[in-house]
C-alpha cells in the first residue's frame, strides 16, 4: 500500500468512527431458529468450518447442546458443562449459532462499577436504532463474571427450559476477558433472542459461557451495527416436524436470564 492510500484509508476510518450510528451493510448469519432450539432441535446441521465462512465472531451452541459457543477472532471456544473450555473440531456441527464479520464502527469506554444491566443501557445509547441488529465486543477486566453452560443431551431430547432448570452456574472473580454478543430487534421473536445476548471468554481462555451477570472494573466496548439477516435452516427431519407455531417467549426468558 502506498503512503497516499494509507492516508486515504486513515481518513475514511476517521469518518466511519465519527459518523452516524447506522449500519454499514453488515450481515448477521444464523443457523436454525431460537424457538427450534427451545423445542429441543439439538442435532447439528452445519459444520463449524462452514459456519466460519460466514463470520469470525459470534455465539451459539454445539451438536447435542454440548456447551456454549464463543467465536472470537475466528477461533471457536466450547464451554462445556464441566466449566472447562475446549477447542472444538471444525468438522463438528452446530444446531444454533449466529455470527458476523466483526467490523466495529464505534467504541466506548465502559465505566467502572457497571453491571450487565448498566452495560446494556450504555450500549443501547451507543448502538442507537433498536430495529437494527448490533454486534458487540467488550474487552475488559471484571470484578465478577457469572456464566452458565448446558450439558450434552441424548434422545429423546428434553425441552431447553428443562435442561436449563439444572444448568451448572460458574462464578469467577477478578478476571480479564471478552464479552461477545448481539442485540436483536423486537420483531425477531421466535427467530433469535430479542434484546441483548452475551457470551464470555476469559483472556486466558480457561473460563466462559453464557453470561448471567458481571461487574466491570475497566472495559472498552466496540459496536458493529448490522442491517442484513441471512438464515440457513436445518435440512433435518427434526426441524421439519417441530411445532414452531406457538409463543415460546416465556420459556426463553427462563432460559436466558438468571433465576431471581
Ligand atoms: Zn447464550
Give a quick summary of the entry.
This protein has 260 residues and is α+β, with helices and mostly antiparallel strands. It has 7 helices and 14 strands.
Tell me about this structure.
This protein has 260 residues and is an alpha+beta fold. It has one domain: 60s Ribosomal Protein L30, Chain: A. Helix content is 21%, strand content 38%. The protein is built from seven helices and 14 strands. It has helices spanning 3-18, 34-38, 48-51, 116-126, 160-164, 237-241, 249-256, and strands spanning 27-31, 46-47, 57-61, 68-72, 75-79, 85-86, 93-94, 97-100, 106-110, 133-148, 169-184, 195-202, 208-226, 228-232. Strands 6-5-4-3-8-1-14 form a seven-stranded mixed beta sheet, with no helix packed on it. The protein is globular, with a radius of gyration of 18 Å. The chain starts with a helix and ends with a helix. The relative contact order is 0.23. Bound molecules: zinc ion (ZN). Zinc ion (ZN) binds at residues 59, 68, 197, 199, 210.
